[in-house]
Amino acid sequence: MKIVYVGLYRVVSESEAWRLAATSHLVDFGYFTRSTIAQHIQFAARTCVRRTAAGCRQTIQLDEQTPFVAHAYVRSDGLAGVVMADKEYPVRVAFTLLTKEMAAYEERVGVNWKRMDADQENEPDFLKQDILHYQDPRKADKLTAIQTQLDEVKDVMHTNIEQLMQRGETLDSLMDKSEDLNQASVQFYKQARKANSCCKY
Q1: Distance, CA of 78 to CA of 14 (rounded, Å)
Q2: 32 secondary structure, DSSP code
C-alpha cells in the first residue's frame, strides 16, 4: 500500500482547475522515468478534480493497466484535493488524508486560495511530512490500526479453533479406542467366566 501523489486544487469549472499545492513520492520508480510519471499523475489529478462534482468524493480507476486510483474530493466552495494511491490503499484513509490536508492548507493561507488563477509551484512541509506518514495506513489511522489488530486476533482464534478441532478428532479416536478396549475387556470377562465355570467343584 502506498501513496504516490497528494495535490490540492482550486476548481473554477469543468475546464479550469489550478494547482495550489502538491507533493509526490516516486522513490519506487526509476530515476529517469520519474518526471514522465509525475507529469502523467498531475494530468490525471487535474482531470479528476475537474470532473468531480462540487460537494462530492469519488474514487476513480484511471485505466486497467495503471496500478493506481485517484481519490478526489471537491468541496462546494471549489477547494479540491486528490490522492493517488495503489488499488490496495484503504479508501477511507485516503479521504481522511485529503480532508486533513485541505484544512491544513486553508489554515495557512486563509481564503487567499480563492484568488489564485494560475498553477502554484508550492510543496508545503506539512504535505511532504503527511505523504510519508500516511504511506502505512495502519500507523497513520487509528481505525485501520484497530482493524488490523482485530484481524490478527481473528486469525489467532481461527488457528486455535482449528487446533481444537484437530484435538477433538484425536479425542474422538481415543474414545473409540477406549470403547474397543471396553468391549474387549467385556469379551475377556465373559470368556474368563466361562472358563472358570467349568473348573468349579
Answers
A1: 11
A2: G
Going along the chain, which residue ranges are E strands? 3-13, 16-24, 56-61, 68-74, 79-86
108 with 45: CB under 8 angstroms? no
pLDDT in tens, the chain (201 residues): 788 899 999 998 888 898 999 998 888 888 888 888 888 888 888 888 998 888 889 988 877 777 889 999 999 898 999 999 988 888 888 888 898 999 999 999 888 888 888 888 888 998 898 888 888 877 766 666 666 666 676 766 667 666 666 665 555 565 566 666 566 665 676 677 677 766 655
Q: What is the pTM of this model?
A: 0.67
CB within 8 A of 145, min separation 6: which ones?
138, 139
Contacts of 130 (CB under 8 A, 6+ apart): 6, 97, 100, 101
Q: Are 85 and 94 in contact (CB under 8 A)?
A: yes
Length of the chain: 201
* Residue 38 buriedness (CB in 10 A; 0-12 / 13-18 / 19+): middle
